[in-house]
Structure formats: C-alpha cells, structure tokens
Write a structure and sequence with these properties.
The complex is a heterotrimer of chains A (about 400), B (about 200) and C (about 80). Chain A is an alpha/beta fold. Chain A has helices at about 25-35, 40-50, 65-70, 70-75, 95-105, 105-120, 135-140, 165-170, 200-215, 250-255, 290, 310-325, 330-350, 355-370, 375-390, 390-400, and strands spanning about 80-85, 120-130, 150-155, 195-200, 225-235, 235-245, 265-270, 275-280, 300-305. Chain C has helices at about 20-25, 55-65, and strands at about 5-10, 30, 35-40, 45-50, 70-75. The longest helix of chain C has 10 residues, at about 55-65. The chains are: A alpha/beta (about 400), B mainly alpha (about 200), C alpha+beta (about 80). The interface of A and B includes residues 92, 157, 233, 238 and 331 of A.
Chain lengths: ~400, ~200, ~80
C-alpha cells in the first residue's frame, strides 16, 4: 500500500486527521491530502482489511467485509452496484456527520468515489440532512469527478438513517425501515446490490487509500484503531464535535471538550440507543473492549454527560418518551411496548413509590427486544435497562421518596 | 326434464344466495379478530372460505342448469357480458355482473401469496358490491320473488349483513391491531417531527 | 454441530396481531400484552425456530395469516 502515498504531501500526524485541512474547499483539500490515488479493487480491499476500520454509523461493522460482500455476486450476475454515503444522522445528540460534511466534504466524496470505483458502481448517492445540503452541493460543484453523485435530502426523523429506511427513501417510498428477506448487499435499491456506508467511514477510507493501513493504525487501540469523530454534550454546554484517537479515556474527552468530568454522575455512550457508563467506573476508554462490560459500544461516537446534580431518571424518562414518539409506527410490539416503557419510567421518575415499577420496566424491555423489523426497540430497551442498572441508587431513592436531585 | 332443470336452477340460486350471505357474514366476523361460536379464529377463516367455495359450486349448478333450460333462454355470452339477456335483461345482467366479479375474487383467493395482500384485499372488497347485486338479481329475476317466504329470506339476509357491517364500522369491532394501523396511516399525513438542535431533549425536560 | 433449523419469520411491519398463528402453533407462539405473537423460545425475536414435527402446522399458519406476515425459512 505504500505506493499509494502521495509524494507531495505528508500524512497527518496526531489525532487530527479528518479535520486537518484548514478550509473546506477543493484546492485546500488537495494541498492537504494530495489527490485520491486510483484504486485497484483488490488493493483497496486488503488495505481496509488490514486497517481494521469499522463503520462509524453506529453498527461498527468491519468496512472491508461490506465491500467484500458485493463483488463476487456482482461479477456472477453482471449487475452494477449502488453505493450510498449515509449522513441522515437522525440521532438528536449527534452532529459529527454534519460537521464532517461542513469541514471536510471532499474526503467524504473521495471515499464514496473510491468505493464506487472499486465496485464498478452504477449509482452513487449522498443522503444528508437539510442543514448541510448547501455545503455538500458546493463541494460537489467544485470537482469534475463528482458529477455522477446524486445529492438527496435525508428525512428528518430518528429512524431515517437505518439502512433499509435510506433505501426506501431513495426509492421514493416512506423513509421507514423494511422487513427484508435479503441483505442489502444482495438486493437493495432497485434490486441492485447496495452498499451503504456512514460518511465518516467513507472519509477514513479516503485517507486509508492514500496513506495506507499502517498509518491508520498508528493511532487508536488494537480493538479500536484510527481516529473517530465524537459529539460531546453535557454540563449545560452546547454540543461540540471533536476528533479523538480510538480508545481515548472518557474523562479526557470531556476535559478536552471543556466539561469537568468530576461534575458528572455518568456518561451516556452511543446516544439514545446507547448505554450509561457510571462516573464511578473511572476513566473508561472509548473502546469496544472496555465498553463491553457496560453493554455499550463506541457506536456513532455520541457522548452525553449527566450532570450529577440532576436526576438521571428524569432525563432518561424524557429520552424514553421521545423515543416512543419517534417509532416508525410499523411494528406492533415496538409501537405499544415503547410507549408502555416510557409511561412506566415516567411514573418512576415522577416519584410514584410503587416497588413493582422497575420489574415491570425490565419485563417490557425484555418483551420488545428483537421484536421489530429494525433494531429500534432493542436500542430503546438497552437504554432503559442500562438506566435501571447504572442508576440503581437513584431508582431506590425514588421508590423510598428520598431523591434530592433537581427534577426540573 | 325441463321442469326439473328449472326447479334445480331456482333452488340452487336461492341456496347459493344463502351460502354467500353466510360467507360474507363469516368474513366480516373473521376480520374482527375474535374467536366466535366456540371456534378458534383460524377455523372461522376456514369455514368462511369453505362456505364461499360451496356457494360457488351451487352457483355453477345454477348457471349450468339454467343454460339447459329453454324457458330462461340463456346463451353462454350472458354468463360473461351483462344486460344482453332475452328475458328481464336488467335483472339477469345484475346476476352476470355478480358472477364476473366473483370470478376475480375466487381466482385471487388461492393465489394470495403471489398477488400480494394488497391486491387480494382490494379484490376481496368487491364482495361488498357482489353481495347486494346478487341479492337484487334474486329479487328482480327470481320466480319466487313475490312469495312471502322469499321476501322473509331476503330481509333476514339483508338485516344480518347490514348489522354485521354496522358493527364492523364501530370502534369496538377489532380489539387489537388498531393501534399500529392507526399510527401507520396517520403517519403519512403527519408533518415531520421538528428537529431543533442536539440539546432539544435537555431543554424540554 | 446443531441440526439445521427451520425458522418462522414474523414480518412485524405487516403483523396486526390477529392471532391465527398463535392458535395453530400454540407450542411455538403465545400472545403478548397487545395480542402480537410472542415466541415461547426466549430471545427468538422475529425468527422462531420450528421443530420438524411442527413444519406442517407452520406452513398452515403461513397460508392462513390474514396479513401475510409470516414466512417459513426451511433449514437446509
């Protein structure tokens, strides 16, 4: 892969990689990263394999495996492939994809083109939130090789970024998840093999194609190599997006974002469908292995600090109510189960001293898990269960009527 | 011989109407999602289907016998193209219309898996048209239409189907499943939930 | 090696919880709080393992589902 390194530029050092260009325009992009080398499919595949890059949209699926799932079939049936860059970013706590598209749109475009070229892609789409349509369209207009990329506005809902919901939206149907008998890589948009990557994943691919897998792994940990963008919220501050090395300590990340970790009772990792890491766990690393014992993953890099003075159950109840309202409304167990969970959690949060409430929440969480056509109920159940486990002391305080935290 | 065919034709017509009425009733009851008459739901569905098939068989006999009957003066084309009949063309035509539509229902039912639930349901909705048309055909064309027993029979059929239909239109008809269905349908008209900023939930609490 | 299993897949986007499948396959399916089919196998979610002897009943359930929300995926 060393042959791919552009001679006129040096690879970014430190953890500032995706965000290392001083401006978003194409000329600055070329001056910072050099031109995108022509990608040989086999070389790109092996580089991605060696890099260990995992999807940055939340699913953490190895990027090379998605790529490898398509070519054999494509060759066998002579069918062309659809490649989609996904920046729907429906999770309200996340803004890293929008930030990336504002700061470094050309890396995303490069990644999309590299993947499409290696697969002989027939159609390429960028599916982005309305707030960044302008920035992305400007970037696409700056280069000749991006003319075939179709820019589409993402639906504004929590589930809009789910892979089959994106495909539905691009096909002109309702942007909701579907029950699919086939994998998207077998049959997706218009029945073609469809490859969907988060835009941050594509930007990393653009850098790996240039500087190689060894460079990529020079930051991060063995189980979370490279850098990642995280959206950090908490302590009453507006959210910030920062680029960190994989496996960075949670407390260090908060300090870097200007939030004192000492004032937090816990951190919600992975957003509304994530899990809590209690402050008592110390400086836990943002790494798959370290987070596993809390049931969390680095996911899409969403971190929300819970102010120790505020009641976490009140916050969790607001989130559960929001999630119950954001279901696509398609699957009975999810529609009914999520609103039931939200109502039980809100009774607990409001201070109803019924000792059966936590058990009822656990029962409902168990009841909805796995019983939807997407993972929406599973994620919501995970969040609720994590709240009960990590904030057990608060649950007991509520049942005893002794919670003295702020509930407003 | 002719008299026998004539009697058979009339009799099977009345029986077919009775069976179709039962099938329509069972179809509506099946849709409520409740077990009824001590039968589980799937058995109710099977009875609905089998009664409909039996009715179709009686209807076939009704058609064939009357084709052989010189009095009715039927031609094959009258089974397919309505309002061409020699005798009472309008009332006979209603029967033809009902047969044509019924053929669509009967053909799509066993092929439900291949035509898809949407087509199946759309075609099945035709029965709400077929049934009254068939009843009118019986009243207008039937030799026994003036007879007291036939009037009573027609009234009972109509009252039964109409009351089932009224129940179908009330809120308590289907005890389950409506939550999901309501939300899905409402969703299409719903404006997208407003995204504000990442701190929205924090501000709302 | 475990024996290849056949799975009864529930398409929740189509299911209205009408309950026919739970009557035909009481060994496999119960009904949840809202009437939707609930696998008796813990954690089975949307894909319910079907034993060999229940395959016929499962096919029957697929054929009779008023919402066509069931699919039988035979173990190979």
């Amino acid at each position: 892969m060393t042959g791919a390194v552009a001679s006129s530029v040096t690879a970014p050092v430190g953890t500032t990689r995706l965000t290392s260009a001083p401006a978003a325009d194409f000329a600055t992009h070329l001056a910072t990263f050099g031109p995108l080398p022509t990608s040989n499919p086999a070389v790109l595949l092996s580089a991605l394999h060696d890099s260990g890059l995992e999807g940055r949209g939340g699913g953490a699926f190895p990027a090379w495996r998605k790529l490898a799932a398509v070519p054999g079939r494509e060759r066998a049936r002579g069918r062309r492939v659809v490649v989609i860059g996904n920046a729907a970013e429906g999770e309200p706590l996340s803004s890293k994809d929008a930030t990336l598209l504002t700061v470094a749109p050309h890396l995303v475009i490069d990644g999309l083109l590299a993947v499409a070229e290696s697969l002989n892609g027939t159609a390429t789409y960028l599916y982005v939130r309305s707030s960044v349509l302008g920035a992305v369209s400007r970037a696409l207009g700056e280069r000749r090789d991006a003319r075939k990329i179709e820019l589409r506005e993402a639906a504004d809902s929590f589930v809009s970024g789910e892979a089959s919901a994106v495909v539905s939206a691009l096909a002109g149907r309702r942007p909701v998840p579907q029950d699919r008998p086939f994998l998207l890589t077998e049959s997706g948009l218009a029945g073609r093999p469809t490859l969907l990557h988060n835009v941050e994943t594509l930007a990393h691919i653009a850098l790996i194609a240039r500087f190689g897998p060894a460079w990529f792994r020079s930051r991060g940990t063995a189980s979370d190599p490279g850098t990642r963008l995280v959206t950090v919220t908490g302590g009453g501050r507006p959210s910030t997006v920062i680029e960190i090395g994989g496996g960075a300590g949670l407390n260090d990340v908060f300090r870097f974002a200007g939030i004192d970790p000492a004032g937090l009772s816990g951190v919600l990792v992975g957003g509304f469908h994530g899990a809590w890491v209690p402050a008592s766990a110390g400086n836990v690393r943002l790494d798959r292995e370290d987070l596993a014992r809390f049931g969390a993953t680095p996911g899409a890099g969403i971190l929300m600090g819970q102010d120790a003075r505020h009641c976490p159950l009140t916050v969790a109840s607001a989130i559960a109510t929001y999630l119950a309202g954001e279901t696509a409304g398609q699957c009975g167990p999810c529609v009914n189960g999520l609103s039931a969970m939200a109502s039980v959690l809100s009774r607990l949060a409001r201070g109803e001293r019924d000792p059966s409430l936590p058990a009822e929440l656990r029962r409902l969480a168990d009841l909805v898990t796995g019983r939807g056509s997407c993972h929406y109920p599973d994620g919501t159940a995970r969040f609720v269960l994590s709240t009960l486990t990590v904030f057990d002391a608060d649950v007991r305080a509520h049942l005893a009527g002794t919670c003295r935290k702020e509930h407003s | 011989m002719n008299e026998a065919l004539w009697a058979l034709g009339r009799g099977t017509g009345v029986v077919a109407l009775a069976l179709f009425t039962m099938s329509v009733l069972l179809g509506i009851l099946t849709r409520s999602g409740r077990p009824l008459f001590g039968l589980p739901r799937f058995a109710l569905t099977l009875v609905h289907r089998n009664v409909a098939l039996l009715a179709t068989a009686f209807l076939a006999v009704h058609l064939v016998t009357l084709l052989g009957d010189s009095y009715a003066q039927l031609r094959l084309v009258d089974f397919v193209v309505p309002f061409l009949g020699a005798y009472k063309p309008f009332w006979l035509g209603l029967g033809t219309v009902a047969v044509d539509l019924l053929i669509a229902v009967v053909l799509t039912s066993p092929e439900r898996a291949s035509v898809g639930v949407r087509v199946f349901r759309a075609v099945h909705w035709l029965t709400y048209l077929i049934w009254p048309v068939a009843l009118l055909h019986g009243i207008g064309n039937g030799t026994d239409a003036g007879a007291g027993w036939f009037i009573a029979f027609a009234v009972v059929c109509a009252v039964a189907v109409l009351s089932a239909l009224l129940w179908r239109l009330t809120g308590g008809f289907a005890p389950l499943g409506s939550v999901r269905a309501d939300l899905t349908q409402g969703d299409q008209n719903r404006t997208d939930p407003k995204r504000t900023d990442p701190n929205r939930v924090e501000r709302n609490r | 090696m475990t024996a290849p299993r056949s799975l009864l897949h529930i398409d929740w986007t189509a299911c209205d919880g009408r309950g026919l499948c739970t009557e035909i396959l009481p060994e496999l399916l119960a009904r949840d709080d809202w009437g939707y089919p609930l696998a008796r196998t813990r954690g089975a979610g949307s894909d319910v393992p079907v034993q060999e002897r229940l395959l016929d009943a499962a096919s029957e359930a697929v054929a009779l589902c008023p919402r066509q929300a069931l699919r039988l995926v035979l173990g190979t």
